[in-house]
Amino acid sequence: xxxxxxxxxxxxxxxxxxxxxxxxVELSSLDQLKKKYNLIPICPEIIxxxxxxxxxxxxxxxxxxxxxxxxxxxxFVIGAREALKLAKLNKCxxxxxxxxxxxxxxxxxxxxxxxxxxxxxxxxxxxxxAQNGIIVLGESQISKLLN
Length: 147
Ligand code: SF4
Known about the structure:
Bound molecules: iron/sulfur cluster
Number of domains: 1
Strand order of the largest sheet: 2-1-5-8
Shape: globular
Structural class: alpha/beta
Radius of gyration: 15 Å
Strand content: 25-35%
Order of helices and strands: EHEHEEHEEEHEH
Number of helices: 5
């Protein structure tokens, strides 16, 4: 049997309670995904040194600021670099990442005002992975990995 392809995946899709609010995220088609791929989980915010639960953070003026006004950019950058290392080590062509997160979101993120307003943009990890040629998909695009 040929070895399954590795894909990077947000750890919160796999039952790890690593979201800022200490929760996890349900991912439909997870069983199908597991059958086809070897899943390599990463939570960039945890590996970047943040605790769970933690204050929500959003990107504003190229910095990541939490709801207390603290600058957590450095944690997010460390996490992104570690995610890229893990992806390269495992030769991941794809990353399936949680949409709208300031780390994992790709294409749309919150605008930095904590008002629930979405704007075009990428989370810190999603951006670094994409810059390095990794195809970043969000959960609403999971079917692209299953066809
Ligand atoms: Fe999930 Fe990414 Fe947020 Fe971690 S940083 S909880 S993996 S969305």
